Amino acid sequence: MEWTGARYADKPTVEVSTWIQASADRVWSIVSDIGRMPEMSTELQSVEWLDGATGPRLGGKFVGRSRHESLGEWSTTSQVVEFEPQRVFAWAVGDVTHPSAIWRFRLSPKDGGTELAEWMQMGPGRSGLSEAIDRMPDKEQKIVFVRLREFERNIAQTLAQIKKMAEA
């Protein structure tokens, strides 16, 4: 059977959500504090606002340093592309018009708590994954599939930790 997964140029996405027994304000205070994200991630090692910023705002930039056993270590600069307090916080990695990824948290009031979804899109801009695809173009769909599953697991872990913090 032939592999029929997504290609990187398709800008594949993954989304995971959870319900949190806490107000959107409480959940927002955690998801919008990018300095806390490395403690919830196996990949992200550190994050720092740039240009004198001390918190999120539309157009704000930050640098993230990451590490992955197969991809090595790297740093990226991201820019906040959506910012609506207590509702949505999203950033594009690399070039805003041609990002290597887009990440988004979306908060919605639900059943006396908050539904929190984390979504990410790969591509279309080049990333470390592009180098792996360049080396093994015949395995592109499998590479993309495996990386999406990694992101899905990591997002689920991040949301579980945000839930735990918000409900504490």
Automatic annotation (TrEMBL):
<dbReference type="InterPro" id="IPR023393">
    <property type="entry name" value="START-like_dom_sf"/>
</dbReference>
<dbReference type="InterPro" id="IPR019587">
    <property type="entry name" value="Polyketide_cyclase/dehydratase"/>
</dbReference>
<dbReference type="Pfam" id="PF10604">
    <property type="entry name" value="Polyketide_cyc2"/>
</dbReference>
<protein>
    <submittedName>
        <fullName>SRPBCC family protein</fullName>
    </submittedName>
</protein>
